[in-house]
Amino acid sequence: MNNDQQIKDLVKEKYAAIALQDKDSNAASCCGATGCGTGEVYNIMADDYTTMEGYNPDADLGLGCGLPTAFAQIKEGDTVIDLGSGAGNDCFIARRFTGEKGKVIGIDFTEPMIAKARQNAESAGFNNVEFRQGDIEDMPLTSDRADVVVSNCVLNLVPNKHKVFSEIYRVLKPGGHFSISDIVLEGNLPAKWKEIAELYAGCVSGAIQKNEYLGIIEEAGFSNIIVQKDKPIIIPDDILAAYLSSEEIEAYKKSNVNITSITVYAEKPSKDDRNCCTPGSGCC
Q1: How many Å apart are CA 284 and CA 265, to the nearest integer?
Q2: How far apart are CA 106 and CA 128, in angstroms?
Q3: What is the DSSP string of the chain?
Q4: What pLDDT digit, counting tens, does each position of 74-122 carry?
Q5: Which of the four CATH numbers 3.40.50.150, 2.60.40.1120, 3.40.50.960, 3.40.50.620 does domain 4-270 have?
Q6: Whether 161 contacts 208, CB under 8 Å
Q7: How many other CB atoms are found less than 10 A from the CB of residue 93?
Q8: Domain edges within the chain
Q9: How far is CA 57 from CA 53, 71, 142, 151, 223, in A?
């Protein structure tokens, strides 16, 4: 699968179906793709949100791979953008930090997810949380809009990560920052995995090398790049067995491949800090 639009269509189809599933069904799947293996529930990607203030169980589909809102340094009155907002879980937790004076905007390109998130926001009576349907490679937002951008296990599903980080840079205010949780690799993923559409929608085969991921962030112009959390992802044998032979599983375990959930923080420099795009600077 090498066509970007085909990948997007697949992900949209899968996550539209996920929006109609319950959390246990999603947790039993490969990051919410479909049922795998024996059907025993494994929480192999997600971290536990349930103790965080603002948590809404109806908005938690168990699809994340970190706790970006816990690391995002959101302040009261901030405008926060959540990329791939799903049913609204991170948005509602972000609102706990922004308060009523702040604004939280979730973006998702799956219509059933948007509908579910809007229903959850209406039920909670939140008038400063909104959800917009759109592609995060071309966000439906004006430039310099957000103080903080968060995202939870979404960018690995996007074909053009350069474009997404360029868009994040555009929508952040000068001096704004992001905290993003995502799946990355260290070592070469078996080629067979990249051919498995189900696993792609399950957050693994769409991941890229950790160094490449951090390099894209730097190339987009961000500074003060910090890996806030680095968590290994261990995929149980019965899930692997749905895709690989026993010999392939053993070879994978002996390989140098690491699948990791990282939470990354980075800042958009202010114009004064960068001293950029001033007459004669030559930096643009």
Answers
A1: 24
A2: 11
A3: ---HHHHHHHHHHHHHHHTTS-HHHHHTBSTTSSB-TT-----SSPPP-TTSTT--GGG--S--SS-HHHHS---TT-EEEEET-TTSHHHHHHHHHH-TTSEEEEEES-HHHHHHHHHHHHHHT-SSEEEEE-BTTB-SS-TT-EEEEEEES-GGG-S-HHHHHHHHHHHEEEEEEEEEEEEEEESPPPHHHHT-HHHHTTTSTT--BHHHHHHHHHHTT-EEEEEEEEEE----HHHHTTTS-HHHHHHHHHSS-EEEEEEEEEEPPPHHHHT-SSTT----
A4: 999 999 999 999 999 999 999 999 999 999 999 999 999 999 999 999 9
A5: 3.40.50.150
A6: yes
A7: 27
A8: 4-270
A9: 12, 20, 31, 18, 35
Q: How far apart are CA 36 and CA 52, in angstroms?
A: 29
Tokens 């809009």 belong to residue: 145
What pLDDT, on a 0 to 100 scale, did the predictor assign at position 44? 63
Residue 51's pLDDT band, with cuts at 50, 70 and 90, is confident
- The end-to-end CA distance of the chain, in Å, is 36
CA–CA gap between residue 268 and residue 169 (Å, rounded): 6
Kindly report, residue by residue over 127-178, the tens digit of the pLDDT.
999 999 999 999 999 999 999 999 999 998 888 999 999 999 999 999 999 9
Calpha distance 34→192 (Å, rounded): 18
For residues 246 and 258, give the distance between their C-alpha atoms in angstroms, rounded to a whole number: 19
